[in-house]
Amino acid sequence: MKIAIAKERRPNERRVAATPDTIKRYLQWGFDVSIESGAGEGAAISDDDYRDAGATVAATRAEALADADIVLKVQRPQAGSDDDGLEGIPDGAFLIALLNPYGDRESVDALAEHNIVGFSMEMLPRISRAQSMDVLSSQSNLTGYKAVIDAAANYGRGMPMLMTAAGRINPAKVFVMGAGVAGLQAIATARRLGAIVSATDVRAAVKEEVESLGASFVMVELDEGDTGATEGGYAKEMSEDYKRRQAELVAEHVKEQDIVITTALIPGRPAPKLIDDEMIASMKAGSVIVDIAAEQGGNTTQTKPGETHVTENGVTILAELNLPSQLATDTSALYSRNLMNFIELMVDQDEKKITVDWEDEIIVGTCLTRDGKVVHPALLPKEEKPAEEATAEAASGDEAADTDSSEKGA
C-alpha cells in the first residue's frame, strides 16, 4: 500500500496534507509514504522532518505519485495544469482532498474520466462518528481566530477597556455575523481580547451558544415553526421577508460597531451580501470589517477579494484569501489528522490492506466518483437519484449553508 502527498501549487496555499506525526501512523498501518520535496515548506516542515518520520522524499511530483493507492491533497487538482493536474495520479487511485464539487463540477467529471476515486472531505456527513474527520470545523476554527487577530491589528485603538491615570479607554464593539464554527471562535477570541461582542445568525438554536461565550444575540423573530436551520444543522437561505427584516435590524446595529466580522457562505454560489453601501457609510471612521467570505465574492458590497482597502468614509475592509493557510502549521496539523482518521476507516490494520465498506454512510457521503462514474447522489440528475434522496430534496427546498469556510462552498 502506498500513500502519496503532492506539493500544493494553488496561489495563497501553504498547507500540506500530511505531517510527520500522521506519516508515522500510516507506516504502522502498513503503508509506504512518498512525499514531494518541498511539500511542507509553507507549514514549516522540512524534507528532513519527513525523512526522519520514515517517509520517502521524492524529487518530483511524478515520482511521488507513481504507483500510489491513495493521494492526499489540500485543494483539488487544477484542471489543465501540467504540474498540479490529474496527470500522474494512477488509474483507480483514491484522491482525498477538498474537491469543491458544487463550485467546480467540471473537475468532478474529470475525476470520473480519469478513473480516479474522488473523496471530497467537505461533503462529510454531520454525524458524531465523523467529528474527528471534520475538516470544515478544524479549518474554520482557526479562521475565526485569525479574523479577529487581523481586525485588532488594523483597528487603530485598543480592544479592551483600559483604566489609566489619564482617563478611561472604552472597549471595542465587535459584531460577528454568522455563528457557525468560525463565528463562535471569533466571538470567543474577541471576548478574550476584552471587546464587547454581539452576534447574529438565522438559527435560533445558536442563541444559547452565543450567550454562553459572553456575547449578546441579535436576531429578528422567525416565522412560526421555522428553525432557520437545515436538517444537517447549517443555516439555510431565508425568505425575502425575513431577509428584509433582518437587514433593517442589522443596519441599526452596524452603525454602532467598531469591528464587524462576516462569515456567510453558500456552497456553489456567490456569498450573500450582508453589508450594503448604506451600512458601510453609516459606520465610524476607523472601523474595520473582516470579510471571511472574500473567496466567493464577499459579504459586503465593497469587498475587493484579496485586497485591503479603505472606503471613502474611512472604514477598512479586509478581504484576504484563504485565511486558514495563513496559519499553515496549525491548520496543516489539524487537516492531516482529519485525513488520517478518515483513512483509518479504509484500512484493515491486522491484514495491512485497504478494505472499504462502500455502504458506510461516511464513505457514501464523501465519495464523488468511482468506477469511472460520478456516484454522489447530490451530483446525479434527478432521474438517477435514489427515490428517497429525491423525496428528501423536494421536501427540504432550496437550502444554503453558512459554513464559515471557503472549503464548504466554506
CATH topology of the largest domain, anyone?
Rossmann fold
Cα gyration radius (Å)? 22 Å
Across the major sheet, the strand order is 11-10-9-12-13-15-14
Please state roughly what percent of the residues sit in beta strands, choosing from under 5%, 5-15%, 15-25%, 25-35%, 35-45% or over 45%. Answer: 15-25%
Please give the share of residues in helix. 25-40%
- Report the structural category: alpha/beta
Distance between the termini: 32 Å
CATH class value of the largest domain: Alpha Beta
Q: Which of globular, elongated, flat, extended, rod-shaped describes the shape?
A: globular
| Separate helix tally | 12
Q: Give the tally of structural domains.
A: 2
Low-confidence stretches: 387-410
- Examine the secondary-structure arrangement and name the CATH architecture of the largest domain: 3-Layer(aba) Sandwich
CATH superfamily of the largest domain: NAD(P)-binding Rossmann-like Domain
Number of strands: 19
Biggest sheet layout: 7 strands, mixed
